Protein: Aldehyde dehydrogenase
Organism: Vibrio coralliilyticus
Amino acid sequence: MNKTSTFSALNPANEQVLEGQFPEHQQSDVDFAANAAAEVAKSFRQTSPAIRAQLLHSIADQLEQAREGIVERAHLESALPHARLNGELSRTTAQLKLFANVVESGLWQEAIFDTADPQRSPLPKPDIRRQNIALGPVAVFGASNFPLAFSTAGGDSASALAAGCPVVVKGHPAHPGTSEKVAECIAKALDEMSLPQAVFTLLQGTSHELGQSVVSHPKIKAVGFTGSIVGGRALYNIAQQRPEPIPFYGELGASNPVFILPQRMAQHSESLAEEYLLSMNMGCGQFCTKPAVVFIVDDNAGKQFLSSVRQGIQNQPGQIMLTEGIKQGYLQQSELRSREQGLTLTQSQPEQGVPAYLFETTSEQWRRNPQWQEEIFGPQSIIVKCESAEDMLELSQNLAGSLTATIQAEEADYALAATLVTELEEVSGRLVFNGWPTGVEVSYAMVHGGPYPASTMPASTSVGAEAIKRWLRPVAYQSMPDQLLPQALQQANPLNVRRTIDGQ
Amino acid sequence: MNKTSTFSALNPANEQVLEGQFPEHQQSDVDFAANAAAEVAKSFRQTSPAIRAQLLHSIADQLEQAREGIVERAHLESALPHARLNGELSRTTAQLKLFANVVESGLWQEAIFDTADPQRSPLPKPDIRRQNIALGPVAVFGASNFPLAFSTAGGDSASALAAGCPVVVKGHPAHPGTSEKVAECIAKALDEMSLPQAVFTLLQGTSHELGQSVVSHPKIKAVGFTGSIVGGRALYNIAQQRPEPIPFYGELGASNPVFILPQRMAQHSESLAEEYLLSMNMGCGQFCTKPAVVFIVDDNAGKQFLSSVRQGIQNQPGQIMLTEGIKQGYLQQSELRSREQGLTLTQSQPEQGVPAYLFETTSEQWRRNPQWQEEIFGPQSIIVKCESAEDMLELSQNLAGSLTATIQAEEADYALAATLVTELEEVSGRLVFNGWPTGVEVSYAMVHGGPYPASTMPASTSVGAEAIKRWLRPVAYQSMPDQLLPQALQQANPLNVRRTIDGQ
């Protein structure tokens, strides 16, 4: 391997260089990793579900053992608090364990059988059985805002390994030390299981070219990405322009609109204001599910809510953003937006860290400025004051794709809420009722996706059990003798997989 | 609507212009159709499964009533025999009825529930329920080679309507009269059901721009396509380069490799030769599942097979191809291939129609000429003579993506066959055992897809019950009160949908 240089990490809290030198991986490293992954792909996809479940548990155990060092390093590299990172590590191991359950359940194989009918006229009906198999080597991009749960051993890697796909991670350059420590845990787990190291490779580097060359590599068969529209769309385009285009599962941004209906507001304006401030400032507004726009009716309760939010935003303590680049982007975009006509701004004035920005506008101005739907990454949000509930409903018809949409309603609001449900289904992957969008449950029913740009593949989710389907494709076996069939489809059902037979 | 001109159909059997003038639809027609489809999309996706099932049955009934006229027109426009077209019409109505069953079964909704746990620490676990909903208006491209089953009311349209998506068909310019007659049946069925006509529109025309403008239209949310790599890839690229990229389900070609193992050949060389000739010449070789390459061992039985195939190919009756353009493409590509070194040619000499071409080569030459994997659309195939079964196995490792792969084996071949199964799973959507790839069952377990170029979306199938999933995306509902939930997720389960609860 040809490493021409190295790079270091910065502590965003004080701009100091952190210890540790990390390789700037080159094209030759990408070739090595992708080719090695392809070489073990066939045997890895044929390991038993029990083996892959054990691997996932073993990675979780290794992470637990290395918890202290990982959390400390992640704290230094991201400025996220220890409590949050400890929670995120627990979430990461919970994800690994969920996918261990998923792979053992066999539901992911979607075994479907057609019974043969040799007597059918005009032609006999063949025995056909289908199952899902692994796609092959998967590239995963680490996300800046979740150095653990959406990075090296995060949900994309866990679900891909569960599916039986080798993984090549392109680590995020903001937390290379964290990535390295986590990759060591995975290496130990593979070693413990006597599985080849080529099943998992971490590539590090600061150049855009590294990511581009991973996505372009002919042996890579799918990509998982969480990040910005600009970076994600560029990689998406590369994936689609390859001689063999590949599925690119990109989560690129969302405004996560919240609709507070009048009766709800009348009864809870104080607590809604508190919850909103908490949700938009959580993790310094660096959550993909941050509520970036809230629609309210400009009545007395709405005015009360606004007044509380304005007061609350001024008292927000400053927080440190993940990187200097993210901070500059946040400040510049907020500054530009604050100069636009039709918005009024209230902000905090922290001694340290970045200010939180609250914009207000009218429904009329909102209609004229569709660019305000574009997410600004950071503790910033817009409140849109509507003339009436009907005015608010009309705005729900012109939203861009989003990960979530939230409805706050009391029973007296349900007629309006029912209409909103139908509208918001059109544009979002998850509808939240009387809650806030931040906080994504890792569960069987979760959908973390939605129409573009929330996801480049709106039929998929990047969180929850169904995320495993991104790395699978179906294969049908026609008139195949039992002894040549894969185990999941054999008559005796040795893996005890749930089967759908003739549509039942 | 601004129709500037019209076009006519040609009878490929005699190059005569057929009666009937068809509109050359323009951008304004595309706008009108797509906008109208978008306007009814929300109400159409919310029709009950029973209503959509009834619509599909009603379309099937209308087609049955119009059978004679449709088949006659399709015969004149395609030169396909009446018996084949009558069979294809029956297949088309069977597809419509299958999707009626699928939509009523509720399996397509994939209802998944997480049970709430308010006591969970550190955070309560919310109630989350997910279902699939329709993507929105779908564009379908009619295929030249199946004027009924893969065209106006074919599998793409049937599955999209079942999912609850309005459909805009871009009819194939080779059979506009057939498309128009079928579209009339759909219009009658919509009328009978008192559903809006905007649920289905047929656009006709001969220009590439028409298809491009359909794929580019912002109201179109997914595309179904069956056709050539050149045309399909161009439209795929347009779909991916839109501001909002959309899923493009394209079936672009396949070589459908067949492996005949030594014991099988020793016992059945004669019948295998007959079956092969039948399969490759079926429908004048214009099937996407035509076996375009057959691997045999060059032993005595293999030589016997070859000799029978050579003799059989010379006696093939000539058949008429679908269009003059397809015929010219077939003759030119076959001519170019016949001049390449390393291939020997045997062909038929029919008085009418096009000749069938059989190429032979060695495994050594095959390795050196990867371009021979490219499909030539028409009655043409290559036999690759391998030195041994091991030589054959090695060739199975370097195949392009394909719709099918076939293994012909006796029990004594099973050790070799088991290795082949693992290799061929990697490159194909369907493995056929001791059969031939032509003839695609319309059933629950069918997979008609596979790695690129067989499909641009390898996780999908374009035939069979699972084809409905192409037009759906998941939505999760978090903590939603029962009365606001969609029916499929309500506690009382009024639609009687199968549910997965907490992973069980």
Observations:
- The longest strand of chain A covers residues 128-134.
- Chain A touches chain B through 79 residues (CB under 8 Å).
- The mean pLDDT of chain A is 96.
- The first helix of chain A runs from residue 27 to 45.
